[in-house]
């Protein structure tokens, strides 16, 4: 039997063991320590961000970003239906409601429809925007950068300004992606940017996430809330309800070793992507005006589920696109607006192996099997 080619597995060939061992030997393994501080500083430097707060997960980061955007009971938040469910659930944690939006051909939020919705389906009351149908206030937009592509952020920020909405960039899949004209990184355009370092993201800390924000106070507030809102550590004084969302030193150690390799990982992923194309696959393109991080590669096929099955039998792991969130049970009764494109992609899209450690012969085998299936 031929070697198993997984969809996406991490690559630990640099300082990972060294840094993690340092934590263990120093006994600093929990929610404070120098690795956390160094990780935050390095990430902020990489992103040209003033400050970054390291957290337990991308989900926790999104929860705090929504909270700090003052999203609360019955407020409404625009969010793409084509995303991972963790990019939506925190809206519900705050007893707010999502309004699901369509995607465009780069799989990210369709800004024409976002603008159309805000223009036609909403109305002002004083200087706040309300949904005409539900009478609830619209508070924020979650812009999710799918698979390493990017929402047109300058345009979205102009829309958000016009309608007085907060913007949270879900950059969990786009760490390292930046625009070519300004060199500005995904996650640093919005009021908030969130990142994830889960096992299959471009870099991993085992589990982990981060939050950055336009206002430094917001990042500091997130750090405070993530650590049980501790005002005095000696006398256990807490003046707010906090969370246990802080990243641990061990996670940060692993994350730091990975962050040192981010650009190397992106270069390798770009190479593999180009090899797939050179060997004859047609993959969805990454936007021309960005340096993408090439996180996940997308193939479109009319026989998606048969192809997935066929490749599984050939020891090649692939993955269909997520089920659209507005069709899932917890969101069956939620609002959605003119979802069309996302439904087309949902039926046809298959992600193919894209690990950093992929070999050229792996790429060749994947392409050969896909071509054999289609012939
Ligand atoms: C991975 C991911 C998240 C959640 O990140 P975790 O660190 O797993 O909590 C959120 N949104 C999107 C789009 C993701 O891909």
Total DSSP helices: 12
Bound molecules: pyridoxal-5'-phosphate
Mean pLDDT, nearest integer?
A: 97
Physical arrangement of strands within the biggest beta sheet: 1-10-9-7-6-2-3-16
Element-by-element helix/strand order: HHEHEHEHEEEHEEEEHEEHHEEHEEHEH
Amount of beta strand: 15-25%
The rough form would be described as globular
Radius of gyration: 21 Å
Number of DSSP E strands = 17
Oligomer: single chain
Query: Which class do the helix and strand fractions yield?
Result: alpha/beta
* Major beta-sheet overview: 8 strands, mixed
- Unreliable spans are none
Kindly state the percentage of residues in helix: 25-40%
Q: How far is the N terminus from the C terminus?
A: 22 Å
Structure explained in plain terms:
The chain has 375 residues and is an alpha/beta fold. 35% of the residues lie in helices and 17% in strands. It contains twelve helices and 17 strands. The protein has helices spanning 16-26, 34-47, 58-68, 89-93, 111-120, 153-162, 216-226, 249-259, 262-278, 304-313, 341-348, 360-374; strands at residues 52-55, 76-80, 97-101, 122-125, 128-131, 138-144, 166-170, 178-179, 192-196, 209-213, 230-232, 237-238, 290-291, 297-300, 319-320, 335-336, 349-352. The strands form five sheets. Strands 1-10-9-7-6-2-3-16 form an eight-stranded mixed beta sheet, sandwiched between helices. β4 and β5 (128-131) form a beta hairpin. The chain binds pyridoxal-5'-phosphate. Pyridoxal-5'-phosphate binds at residues 57-59, 83-84, 86-87, 144, 170, 172-173, 196, 198, 209. The site of pyridoxal-5'-phosphate has 14 residues, from α3.
């Amino acid at each position: 039997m031929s070697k198993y080619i997984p969809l996406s597995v991490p690559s630990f060939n640099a300082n990972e063991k060294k840094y993690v061992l340092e934590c263990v030997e120093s006994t600093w393994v929990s929610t404070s320590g120098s690795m956390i501080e160094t990780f935050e500083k390095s990430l902020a430097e990489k992103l040209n961000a003033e400050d970054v707060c390291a957290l337990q997960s991308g989900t926790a980061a999104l929860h705090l970003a929504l909270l700090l955007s003052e999203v609360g009971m019955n407020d409404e938040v625009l969010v793409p239906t084509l995303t991972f469910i963790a990019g939506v659930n925190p809206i519900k944690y705050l007893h707010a409601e999502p309004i699901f939006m369509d995607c465009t051909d780069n799989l990210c939020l369709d800004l024409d429809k976002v603008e159309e919705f805000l223009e036609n389906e909403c109305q002002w009351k004083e200087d706040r925007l309300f949904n005409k149908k539900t009478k609830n206030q619209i508070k924020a937009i979650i812009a999710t950068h799918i698979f390493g592509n990017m929402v047109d952020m300058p345009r979205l920020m102009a829309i958000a300004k016009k309608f007085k909405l907060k913007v949270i960039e879900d950059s969990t899949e786009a760490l390292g992606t930046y625009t070519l004209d300004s060199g500005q990184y995904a996650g640093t355009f919005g009021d908030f940017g969130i990142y994830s370092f889960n096992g299959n993201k471009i870099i991993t800390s085992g589990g982990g996430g981060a939050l950055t924000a336009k206002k430094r106070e917001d990042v500091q507030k997130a750090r405070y809330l993530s650590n049980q809102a501790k005002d005095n550590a000696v006398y256990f004084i807490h003046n707010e309800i906090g969370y246990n969302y802080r990243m641990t030193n061990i996670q940060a150690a692993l994350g730091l070793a990975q962050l040192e390799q981010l650009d190397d990982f992106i270069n390798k992923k770009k190479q593999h992507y180009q090899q797939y194309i050179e060997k004859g696959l047609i993959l969805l393109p990454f936007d021309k005006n960005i340096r993408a991080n090439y996180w996940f590669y997308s193939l479109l096929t009319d026989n998606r589920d048969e192809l997935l099955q066929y490749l599984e039998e050939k020891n090649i792991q692939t993955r269909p696109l997520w089920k659209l969130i507005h069709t899932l049970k917890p969101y069956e009764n939620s609002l959605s607006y003119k979802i069309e494109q996302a439904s087309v992609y949902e039926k046809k899209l298959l992600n193919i192996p894209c690990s950093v450690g992929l070999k050229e012969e792996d790429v060749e085998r994947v392409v050969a099997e896909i071509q054999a299936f289609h012939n």
